[in-house]
Design brief:
Belongs to the peptidase C40 family. InterPro entries: NLP_P60_dom, Papain-like_cys_pep_sf, Peptidase_C40, SH3_YKFC_2nd. Keywords: Hydrolase, Protease, Signal, Thiol protease. This is C40 family peptidase. Pfam families: NLPC_P60, SH3_YKFC_2nd. By secondary structure, this protein is of the alpha+beta class. The protein has three domains: 98 residues, SH3 Domains (SH3 type barrels, Roll), CATH 2.30.30.40; 65 residues, SH3 type barrels, CATH 2.30.30.40; 124 residues, endopeptidase fold (from Nostoc punctiforme) (Alpha-Beta Complex). The chain has a six-stranded antiparallel beta sheet with strand order 17-22-18-19-20-21. A five-stranded antiparallel beta sheet has the order 6-5-4-1-7. Strands 13-12-11-8-14 form a five-stranded antiparallel beta sheet. The longest helix is centred in the C-terminal third of the chain and has 11 residues. The radius of gyration is 20 Å and the shape is globular. The protein starts with 8 loop residues before the first helix and ends with a strand. 43% of the residues are buried.
Length: 335
């Protein structure tokens, strides 16, 4: 078995949880991401030397983003599927040597009913039934700051792992200015209370207004584009829009095409803040390839993508002046 959560026996007794299964038990159907951001690949063992920070444990997504050249970013397009955040459950589909084919729970896709598929290094996953039970039975802390540090002390001075917005961890207790959370791989740790919101269950997240969605989206303006990115260390276009909605308690499909199919169509002259705008090949009549979020006043915010000559950070742009303006395919609403 892989490393299991090291919650103390006393804590388990207090919480009334079952004991950790004995060694030698068959692999469970569900495991948990044990790094800040796990990147899922199209095929196993196709990572490049520059990708070492992304496939390690601990992973360092900030270093990975900083060390890639523009061309190396562009070259990721045929290599990557999506990303999953710390503690996120994944369903095990297949094992191949040091790699595991998983379905990322919480990222809907028509490709697999269990979640978004991709290959991740086995060393980035944790088999932790105790953590899984805590996820199902405890309130959770939702990281709402762009990033937040997991710490070994409630003062937040002993930084351990930098987590992305939208990371969700079970809450064990609270102290002044801090929240004690369970982790899948290292026992109880602390997050600054200012960096999270605590909810008893996901359905308790307040239903957002368009203004709420826009406020969330604008917080990431200037962040660099990363193909397959779903974290505050780098987004792709649909990873950005799905994360903005997730942070506001609404789950939408992971990819642009399914997002368009899932929402309620809205005409261009009826756009409201928070609506999603889509672009498609063949002057808007072909397959959808891009999505942005309308923010009002004729503007949208999106992660526009990198070309081989220019890096394009997440930006606010006029809808009619968007680089894909001639490929406008329509808009949808989820509110």
């Amino acid at each position: 078995m892989k490393t299991v959560s090291r919650l103390s026996a006393a804590l388990l007794m207090v919480l009334g949880l079952v004991a950790i299964p004995a060694a030698g038990q068959a692999d469970p159907a569900t495991e948990y991401v044990g790094v800040s951001v796990a990147t899922a690949w199209v095929d196993p063992a196709t990572d490049r030397p520059v990708d070492a920070p992304a496939v390690a444990n601990p992973a360092d997504p900030r270093k990975w983003a900083a060390t890639m050249t523009l061309q190396q970013r562009v070259d990721l397009v045929p290599l990557l599927e999506t990303q999953a955040l710390y503690g996120n459950p994944v369903r095990i589909l297949e094992r191949q040597g040091a790699w595991v084919h998983v379905a990322v729970v919480g990222q809907p896709t028509p490709r697999n009913a269990l979640g978004y598929p991709g290959w991740v290094p086995a060393r980035q996953l944790v088999d932790s039934p105790v953590f899984g039970t805590l996820q199902q039975t405890r309130p959770f802390a939702l990281v709402t700051a762009a990033t937040a540090w997991l710490s070994t002390d409630p003062t937040g001075r002993q930084h351990e792992t930098e987590l992305s917005a939208n990371t969700r961890l079970p809450v064990l207790s609270r102290a002044d200015g801090a929240v004690l959370v369970a982790t899948p791989d290292r026992g109880p740790r602390w997050l600054r209370a200012a960096d999270v919101h605590v909810y008893a269950k996901a359905s308790d997240i307040p239903r957002p207004t368009g203004a709420d969605l826009v406020r969330t989206a604008k917080a990431f303006v200037g962040l660099h584009y990363l193909w397959a990115g779903t974290s505050a260390f780098g987004f792709d276009c649909s990873g950005f829009t799905s994360t903005v909605y997730a942070l506001n308690g609404i789950t939408i499909p992971r990819d642009a095409g399914p997002q368009m199919a899932a929402g309620k169509p809205v005409s261009k002259d009826q756009l409201r803040a928070g609506d999603l705008i889509f672009y498609a090949y063949d002057h808007g009549t072909g397959s959808v390839h891009h999505v942005g979020m309308y923010i009002g006043g004729g503007y949208e915010v999106d992660a526009p993508g990198n070309s081989e000559t220019q890096e394009s950070p997440l930006e606010i742009v006029k809808v009619d002046q968007h680089r894909y303006a001639d490929q406008y395919a329509g808009a949808v609403r989820f509110l």
